[in-house]
Amino acid sequence: MAGQRTVYPETFGEGGKAMWREVTSTYALSSTELALLKQLCRTIDRLDVLELAAKGVAPVFEARQGTVMHPVFVEIRQQSTVMARLIASLRLPDAPTIAAPKVDDAPKRPQRRSGSRPYYGVNNPDLKVVGHG
Questions:
Q1: How does pLDDT run across 57-75, given as a tens digit for each residue?
Q2: Is the overall model pTM greater than 0.70, yes or no?
Q3: How far apart are CA 92 and CA 105, in angstroms?
């Protein structure tokens, strides 16, 4: 579809536009997948803004509580986690690599994605603390 203009669902920044173009030109997506992609593009743009805000800022500083992480770096970490989960939820196959050698005994089935992984927090009953106590 050379020469066809890409239509974006909203105003994205450069990172969001690049992701939208790449995915929508390569894959046919359902409405649910398009909603995930839209959120992914927003997250990419948010990360771009946060990265600009983080330039010249020390990642940690001294506060009353002691040495703490600067809030912009905390938000970058959180948005990066959101981005990774959205990418996993889209279940897009890995891009083929040109230099990858063909192996005869390679699996012939399509790649599978399990979606985003759950958060493993302190309150998770499936995890136990080892070596304490």
A1: 999 999 999 999 999 999 9
A2: no
A3: 24
